[in-house]
Structures are given as C-alpha cells and as structure tokens.
Design goal:
With 223 residues, the protein is α/β, with parallel strands linked by helices. The chain folds into 2 domains: 143 residues, 3-Layer(aba) Sandwich (Rossmann fold), CATH 3.40.50.1000; 68 residues. Helix 1 packs across helix 4.
C-alpha cells in the first residue's frame, strides 16, 4: 500500500524554480561569470547550499569562490520574485485535498532551508497541509543522495516501498529512485532524459493526476 507522498517544493509545488534560475543568470551576468550557468543550474538543482558550493569547486577549481555570486543571487531575489510572482503550480491544492481525504500522509522534502520554505508555503496558503517537513539544513547530504527521502519517510512512519516521491528535477528523481521509492516526475524547467525515464514510476503533466495513480495502485482503498 502507498501511504505517503514526499513532495519537493521548488518547481514541484511552487513555481519558484524559474525565479531562482533567473536570479542565478542575473548574478552570473553582473559578475562576468565565465562558466556555463545554464548547465550549472541543471547540475546543482535540488542541492543544498554546501553541496552547491562543493559542486562549483569541483567543476571550476578548489580556489573558485562562488560566494559573491550566491550573495548577489540572494539580493536580487525579492525584486525578481515580485516581478514574476510567487504562486503554486497547477493542481497542487486539489491534489493535497484529495490525498488528505484518501488518508495519504504528505511530507515536504526540499533542499531549501526551513525559514524560506515555511515563508513561501505560508504565502501560497499550503503550509499547514503537510504532516512533516524535511529541509536542507536538517540534512548531511542533499539530492541526489537519498537521505532526504529516507528521513522524510521515517518522519511519518512509512517504509520506502510505501512512499511516492513527487519531483521536477533530475537530482530529485535520482534521490527518490536511490531511496527505493516510486518516483513521479512533473517536469518544470527540466525534461526527463532516457536515464531519468528509466527511474520513473510515472511522468505527468500536472500534479492533479497524482491521486488517481495512487488510488489505482491501492485498489481504491482508503487508509
């Protein structure tokens, strides 16, 4: 039986990934960054800040300091978010309502820190719709490591086999797959590659297709 859905936040529940990406591009341009920021955005999507720093050092050398770009990225975020708007992805509220009615536990599993995650979830009206929260600063490893999803399952007393991971990023899919869970991808700024397709239970266009998949897998039983 499937008993819980573990939700990524950025790009899955909230339409924030485009905002973050625009902030990174702005900061990279302002600081005359010579790397491939669009490729980097894909590579570190889902990582927490320490792992993102390690990623940049691994790619551009141990002496590369990404801190100035991160600070500028953070500084420009409020203005860019104001311009682009903070909103839920399509079908999110309907999905959360249906899962609650079905008795399915709902958990936030995001590399974003709790302060930011809670602020965004409250601003979009869904903070209180979850049973537990796993955020970046609570973890030793970030996606694609499976730690976040394994700990999220533990937080609501579920086995990996009883969990569905809802993700939009390649690293998130890899983390859910490594955790031994069924992974549903709702593509946002990243499309699934052949590698990613091989790890998926389903790929859906919008979140509101998820409850029907779980009902079918559970033979329409209510928990």
């Amino acid at each position: 039986m499937l008993r819980a859905v573990l939700f990524d936040m950025d790009g899955t529940l909230l339409d924030t990934q485009r905002i973050y990406n625009e902030c990174w591009r702005y900061a990279a341009k302002k600081l005359n960054f010579q790397g491939d920021i669009d490729a980097d955005i894909i590579a570190f999507a889902g990582m927490n800040r320490p792992d993102a720093i390690a990623y940049f050092k691994g790619k551009y050398g141990a002496d590369f300091d990404v801190t100035p770009m991160m600070k500028l990225r953070d500084a420009c975020e409020p203005e860019i978010m104001s311009q682009m708007g903070l909103k839920r992805k399509p079908g999110v509220m309907e999905t959360l309502n249906q899962l609650q009615q079905m008795g399915i536990r709902r958990v936030i599993a995001t590399g974003t820190n709790f302060e930011r995650a809670s602020r965004f979830l409250k601003a979009t009206g869904i903070f209180d719709r979850f049973d537990a929260y796993l955020t970046g600063e609570m973890l030793t490893h970030s996606k694609p490591h499976p730690e976040i999803f394994l700990r999220a399952a533990e937080a609501v007393g579920c086995t990996p086999e009883g969990c569905v991971v809802a993700e939009d990023s390649h690293n998130g899919v890899r983390a859910g797959y490594a955790a031994g869970m069924r992974v549903v991808m709702i593509p946002d700024v990243q499309s699934p590659t052949d590698e990613i397709h091989s790890m998926l239970w389903h790929c859906i266009d919008t979140m509101d297709a998820l409850p029907a998949l779980i009902k079918e897998a559970n033979n329409n039983e209510i928990l």
